[in-house]
Fold this protein.
Amino acid sequence: MYSPRSASLPLLVAVMITWVDPCSAAWFPDPDRIVVIKHERVLRLEYRGDVLKSYPIALGRHWKGAKREKGDGRTPEGVYLIDGRTRVTPYHLALHLSYPNAADRARAGGRALGGAIFIHGMPARFGRTDPVRFFVDWTNGCISVGNHAIEEIWDVVADGTAVEIRP
């Protein structure tokens, strides 16, 4: 015999089977911008100004202020693009930033700036680890996220995506 209550059970089961984990990066649109806020130690994936997901970060050892020269241990500040990616790194995946830009070159006053600034994971030996918070800034000027986080970011961020690094 037909019953409205029994007819809704298959629908409920179908909804439960197709439920997407809201913590997963798979449910949101592709980000059109990455915003790094250095003093908050956070990297945000954004789409049309809305924050899709945030990740804790570690920065260069001397994180305050913009990068001035190669080897100063500072993380740059400004707007860059993801201009490449590599799996061949001591860290678990790496997205290369278009550093230095014109403002960086002007600020440097002829000093060597380098160019190996990445958003990357932690050393590969840590496995798929995501710390809740980084307690030490340990990079040479890059932006580090957890290894699971860099996998999510790698999968949803296209080359050419803008990266704004704020103080």
